[in-house]
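Hi R.,

Here's the chain you asked about this morning:
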Amino acid sequence: MKKLLIRRRTPVSILVVFTVAVILFVNACGFGTGSSTKAGALDAEDPSLNENEAGGEPVTISLWFPWGGGFKKEFDDTVVKPFEAANPDIKVQLTFVENSDNSQASDKLLTAIAGGRAPDVAMLDRFVVGEWAAMDALEDLSERAKQDQIAGMYYPAMWAEAQYDGRTYALPWNTDSRAMFYNKTMMKEAGLDPDKPPATISELDGMAEKMFRTNGKGDYDQVGMIPWLGQGFLYTHGWNFGGEWEKNGALTPNDPAIVNALRWMQYYAKKYGTKKLFSFTNALKQTGRNPFLSGKVGFIYEGNWLLNEIGDSSFDWGVAPMPTVDSSLDETWAGGWSFVMPKGARHQEQAWRFITFITGKEGALLWASRAGSKFDITSIPEVNAQLGLDHKENLSVFVNLLAHAHIRPVTPVGGYMWDEMYRVQNLAVQLQGEPQALLNQMKKKVDAELARVKAGVFGETSK
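And the predicted structure, written out as tokens:
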């Protein structure tokens, strides 16, 4: 049996190898979904497994989701009930299962899969689909998707993120993208044209420089730009500088353009002072609100979700694509959620009907047009156009960028790579390393971790 793999702060952590090992053990011992002994034990604990399918009673399928608040009722009223009305032979049981340690995935779900108690459907961040597929925790949906010819329905990036090793393991649901919010009031006060936001990184640097203000103590009262605020991750800047995080199947965090992006981030730390910048941002964090909403930040990279909070701001603002090296192409990257069929799902035919409904045009249209939806974006261009999202003020910037959006590499070490990126980024802006050396080190660590995972040699992750 394989040893436990522990990845610090990795989305699919702690139970990755345990899950695979138990699944293999369960199947080898005859305790899979086809085992009458195991099925009887499960039926006693899970009401959804007690349906008399042969007797014509509705089949109850289970859906696990990690979103709290009023999501359960809203999702049930908006999407589930219409599905059940159109499919009277299926009932949907909704269960809230919180993700683990503020990650994108649930160890409880992994445990359920390992124990042969998987729900029929689960809501999963698309970012971890590749990792879960690699450890055989998801059902392969390729043949069903091919038969229903649904691939062309979605944005290319969203569909690509639901694939692993040429196979389909999820169907995209919602999505997001990144753009630049800019403070028009601060631009005007700095003698800049508030209707002409920067389009290149050099223009951004010049405009931001004019917006920095200090008080009598020498601390910043306002700043023009802090590259690592909001969605200002090295991932973001790497693409804006023309870099690629993956080439020909190889992970390339030390791509020369990404090195330049990290040098740019470090340039701000050196020019404006790391301690002073962190002191400024730490004070803003105490408010619990996005830093841009303070009215003291000139430019910030953020997602379309910020539009939900900014409507009552006391300053003039705008949205534009993020500046790039030469402004030849507007860049963005997208994330979002999907629906999957966990390995061992019992009611797969019914689960597929449900998944294709909620992630298809009808379900997406119902969800995105609900009363509580203002700035949600679906993964289906046709639905977004039907709702006029591609022409909606401010939101249109985010929607129109999706046609050529980037996604983070789909890899079994995606979470590990994200953690390494964040670690290297923090070292650079705290002036604790030279960008080229830091990213060369990151490349070695990511490659070593990928080789370890592919070889099945597990243990304590390399430091």
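The chain has a mean pLDDT of 88.

Let me know if you need anything else.
M.
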